[in-house]
Write a structure and sequence with these properties.
The structure is a homodimer. Chain A is an alpha+beta fold. Chain A has one domain: Glutamine Phosphoribosylpyrophosphate, subunit 1, domain 1 (4-Layer Sandwich), CATH 3.60.20.10. Chain A is built from five helices and twelve strands. The first copy, chain A, has a five-stranded antiparallel sheet with strand order 10-1-2-11-12, with helices on one face. In chain A, helix 3 packs antiparallel against helix 4. The longest helix of chain A is centred in the middle third of the chain and has 25 residues. Chain A is globular. Chains A and B meet through helix 3, helix 4, strand 11 and helix 5 of A and helix 3, helix 4, strand 11 and helix 5 of B.
Amino acid sequence: MTYCVGMSLEKGLVMLSDSRTNAGIDHINTFRKMTYFEEPNERVLVLMSAGNLAITQSLLSLLKEHLHSENPQTNLLRVPNMFEAARCIGDTLREVHKRDGATLREFNLDFTASFILGGQIKGEPPRLFQIYAAGNFIEASEDTPFFQIGEIKYGKPIVDRVVKRSTSLIEAAKCALISMDSTIRSNLSVGLPLDLLIVRRDELKITCHVSIDQDNEYFNLLRSSWGNSLREAFQQLPNPEWLNCSCQ
Amino acid sequence: MTYCVGMSLEKGLVMLSDSRTNAGIDHINTFRKMTYFEEPNERVLVLMSAGNLAITQSLLSLLKEHLHSENPQTNLLRVPNMFEAARCIGDTLREVHKRDGATLREFNLDFTASFILGGQIKGEPPRLFQIYAAGNFIEASEDTPFFQIGEIKYGKPIVDRVVKRSTSLIEAAKCALISMDSTIRSNLSVGLPLDLLIVRRDELKITCHVSIDQDNEYFNLLRSSWGNSLREAFQQLPNPEWLNCSCQ
């Protein structure tokens, strides 16, 4: 399984992914789920993937092959804007589906794949998209400034409550890490190392990209403190004494 | 959808269920998902259900029919212990499956149903079971003192962090309500009113059973305070300043 979250904020983009893939609990591997395409001062695109690893790897291989193409519809370094970038990825995914879909079906395997694409191309603000297995996609908005893919539910409540368009990049990164911690704690198949990537608006390059493993002091502090903070917050809320039924 | 959580604590049982069922978002109804069987001073059994409403209602109707039976294997008011109560429910569910399973399959519908059974029968401590669609079941333990069914993921992190066997009944009830709030906030298909039921150890009756609707002051307070507490706890954690990448 996988957990990735992408946030589109006034000041830029925050993207976080785990790196565990599994096919049964005795077959767990580490594969990066974040890839970026960068042409400094001109464009930066970040793609995170969840789903069947054979499918997502095929997609990435095709996207990389197309980087040598002159066609501005298939080459992510030449597409004129982020909408066309999302279309390009959707179309490439349909190529993979055309090739593999029927065979997978014969083996009773679903064609599962989903993606978060964030980035900025000169002339536009940063934009964030979620791309589905069918190659269609949606864009983040003022009201929905984040997308999640993979094992999304455990980590959703904290992002729902904290992240707005006006949240700073550094706080959004903290929130993404707490959301990831909740997911890792509840689901064995999501695991370290993590890829955290920030794109500051109008810098048109990767502002910062760090890998977070089990020795990362900050993440370890966050993990232990967040659990304690939650328990303290819980203690501070009043008990339902009104139940008044000798339950105290 | 549904969300139910049952907790088995040193001092007794806490059970909480929502009451929304839906078949598509334009078809939302309110049905109670909690039923109890009580013979004061002798036994108290509480059953919560999730899944296909036709299946869970059939099961309940059969269980109620069997209350007139002399057979100690099929009558929940006569089974000798909680293990046999769980078997009785599993067997009855298999009756429903025998009758409806094949037809449902023809309509491409899964036989989905899951249950949490909690209770105490004189001579035993309180016990808590989770019963699956196939009629098999597991029992809560020291290490796993709670079960959830339905839309379980949003509300799991807080229960994971707070509830132990030693948690008091009133705190467990508070935690169950916070867990429900996280679920309702993230999933439209889980909704009020809620059924909250507490069985204090060795009382051998329902200690307290309340219905919580949108006018319940305590639940409304919990909902608003918990959001604020989470945001405060979030603010108090240090930001990842070490990223050191002009992201502040």
